[in-house]
């Protein structure tokens, strides 16, 4: 494209080049600049490593916190049993009344599961577990009530509470008991943690953006002379920008990989200690590590940050550099 | 090819660098632009290469008014003008090949076509054997010739040179001038800014002389024996 000389076949279009080939050449150019900026990083290994390290560490913290929240959530998920509601049945209720209620509750759409524990079953279990076996046999009659255990379909505290109030209206039900206070607390803590992770992540990601922007700014200033020459021989801003944008992308790729490695290392290191704790509590808890999609998300985020950081810098500084004279 | 029509350029603070300059450079013509330093030679070249814009008047290249050229179009204008700089402005960390290939890379050349053109340009300035060297290993004259090769590698119809022989001894200057003459003979318009009076006089080409922003001579200079 020549603006001045319409007859002059300028540039690559001077040869009869097939559009497909020109399209290919465009990507070859991109690839060349992409690899070229990797070479640039290699030329200043220390500075590049520092930037990558900053990026990696900054991404490690939010990633670790995310894993922590994820693991805590998985633990709390296994405690849905705790949202069980116990309904104590009045002593004067007949067996038919009880079995009618059990059938009715089983059909209730809000209820996942119903379990009836008769007073004799409860007594047997109590004798076994409590260790008062001999002493309990001395009692004249069984003081324990019949109990219906209900597992609500919706385990959120409000929904469970609503269900409890509704079933408490039944004539033979004495009262229902739902231990949700601690569940509510756990939920609140989890929410707090999630929000804290989000806030910390946002702060760190902003820092990453600024750090990359500044690094790119410095390398633009270092290459001021070269940029001026390129502008003088007819390079467009877009052409000059590209290597810097690719540098940002490379920072992102390596920073993301570093963060992934650090997190994996940390998980591996902590796994032993956590195993000891869970053994003491006689539970089988395995630490959840990053899934593949989470790894990809981390990498994508990191690359986007690198690209955005360098774009902020590039769009301002490359435009500003103008050759001062021939 | 190149037309200046009542062109003035003044800088903030009231300094008038160019004062109503008018001249025309025909297609395939070669001319010198002389004058003491500060006479406005550099400003004139900056107006052509769109580094600066005139305060008033019109600059036309091939009858296209440069006033019409938007900022985003400037790079494409510069691809049609080969510029040679006094301090040659080579990229010192890149080889001679990379330096000369730069305009071609910018225009999207790849592979064999690019190599062919770079070698042709270096051959014209007689530096084909230095293609893999770094510029700093070359002499001043050779560096200047690499600069010329870079300016002509994409075959621009107009060639501007700003003090191309500024730091060179007379022997080398003559060599450089012969290179310019060779390009001129194949139809390239050449405008050379220089303060080397004796060189200008010897070469016997049309000479535009500036003094304090005004054009005081347009035509052949009388031959003067160097002192």
TrEMBL record, chain A:
It comes from the Bacteria. It is a multi-pass membrane protein. The keyword Hydrolase does not apply. It holds the Pfam family FtsX. Gene3D superfamilies: 3.30.70.3040. Residues 199-316 form the ABC3 transporter permease C-terminal domain. GO terms for biological process: cell division. It is found in: Cell inner membrane. InterPro entries: ABC3_permease_C, FtsX, FtsX_ECD, FtsX_proteobact-type. Residues 84-173 form the FtsX extracellular domain. The chain crosses the membrane at residues 196-216, 249-270, 291-314. Keywords: Cell cycle, Cell division, Cell inner membrane, Cell membrane, Membrane, Transmembrane, Transmembrane helix. GO terms for cellular component: cell division site; plasma membrane. Part of the ABC transporter FtsEX involved in cellular division. Belongs to the ABC-4 integral membrane protein family. FtsX subfamily. Forms a membrane-associated complex with FtsE. This is Cell division protein FtsX.
From TrEMBL, chain B:
Part of the ABC transporter FtsEX involved in cellular division. Important for assembly or stability of the septal ring. One of its GO terms (cellular component) is plasma membrane. The gene is ftsE. NCBIfam families: FtsE. Residues 2-227 form the ABC transporter domain. InterPro entries: AAA+_ATPase, ABC_transporter-like_ATP-bd, ABC_transporter-like_CS, ABC_transpr_LolD-like, Cell_div_FtsE, P-loop_NTPase. This is Cell division ATP-binding protein FtsE. The lineage of its organism: Bacteria, Pseudomonadati, Pseudomonadota, Gammaproteobacteria, Alkalimonas. Belongs to the ABC transporter superfamily. GO terms for molecular function: ATP binding; ATP hydrolysis activity; transmembrane transporter activity. Homodimer. Forms a membrane-associated complex with FtsX.
